[in-house]
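Subject: two folds for Thursday's group meeting

Dear M.,

Sorry for the delay on this. The cluster queue was jammed most of the week, so I only got both jobs back this morning. I'm pasting them in the order they finished. Each block is the input sequence followed by the predicted structure tokens. Could you check whether the formatting survives your parser before we put anything on slides? The first protein is the one we discussed after the seminar.
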Amino acid sequence: MPIPETVYVLGRGERGIYGEIYFPKRAAYQGAIFDALRYGYDENRVKRYFQDHAEELLQEFQDHPRLFDPRHYETAKPRRSTPSVEEARERFGMYVSPFKGWSTYSVDGVFFDREGRMYEEATQVVRLLFRFTSSFVEQAVAAGCGDVLRSILFWTIARQARLGEHLPWSRAEQTRFTAEHAAWPKRKRAFVRKHFPGIAREVSKWIDDVGLFVFGYLVRQFSERVHTERLEEQEIWATSFFNLTVSVVRRELH
């Protein structure tokens, strides 16, 4: 019997978010950082953390009310009022973990405070890569529109400069997307008309779940340890890039 041949096939690039969180490299913080990351994969554990701290999270993230609105992804108009604690808990119940792993590295950094004083310290960086997987893959493959789905994902994830009144799944956003791809054949434009709003809603919730995990869970766990250790950090830095392309080489047997 012939032995199957192993080949590695390069797939199409996938969209994701790349983020880093910068912590002072201190022994007092290492356990908290590691535990938050280790347990961060447990979706139910993270949900319980959100539920237990719902009131504090609403206060700390009052500039981002959509993160706590369970109806946000169904609406045609942005909500202006602040969600209640009960609504926030309902939204936390909808959380789906985007977290799959992390890596760390250390750098020597120099930083200036608001008064211009210079500080030099070792910094530990936690690197996070969030890779998006759409539930519309089967529909796209069946319609021969895998490239259309990929294009919509690239569009919706990368465009983060909208005004508060513009929802990613709005008719105006869909019109702009369609106009930019007016040369597409009719069947591909039909796929956009049918699925653009649903895909955009799915992407938006995933991005918000990433935000909840990074800031409502990881960074908050670290800040709690700072307080417990009676230490003081003026700022905690987190960076993010919404134009990450993940190229996956898959092992296949032939």
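Second protein, same layout:
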Amino acid sequence: MESKTVQVAVGVFIAAGIAALFMLAMKVSNLSTFTAQDGYELTARFDNVGGLKVRAPVTMAGVRIGRVASITFDQKTYEAVVRLDMEPQYNKIPDDSSASILTSGLLGEQYVGLQPGAEDKYLQAGGEVKYTQSALVLERLVGQFLFNKAEGDGAKKK
């Protein structure tokens, strides 16, 4: 009788652990929240999207206002085209707003951050964010630093 109670308790504990791991996996993969079907779509063009992924958050002032819907490559302009699915209640984004690819957290997750502009006109469904700043690529920064350092040392020797 006591053995049966212990087995049931262990089973409940294991089931709770599996449920907790499932919830953690959903939270980490950004699948726990879904975008509203009646939202609207914007696009933004970047020279480099770095490690940006589909379903990454789109934020303004630290508040999630949408998600990245798709990332494609434009063969004419050689730019990445990022389609953003915006929540319907955030429909007053100024026309001259800018979008940047930013990094958050210890794992370096990337997201799109919108900075509001000052225009009185707002971005409409299907509109494009004109001002963008690409992802910061660490390898390129280190390469520039080393190149500038080597160039500076060469000038000192002359």
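Two things I noticed about the second structure. The chain has two helices and eight strands. Strands lie at 40-46, 57-60, 63-74, 79-86, 98-104, 109-115, 128-129, 131-133.

Cheers,
T.
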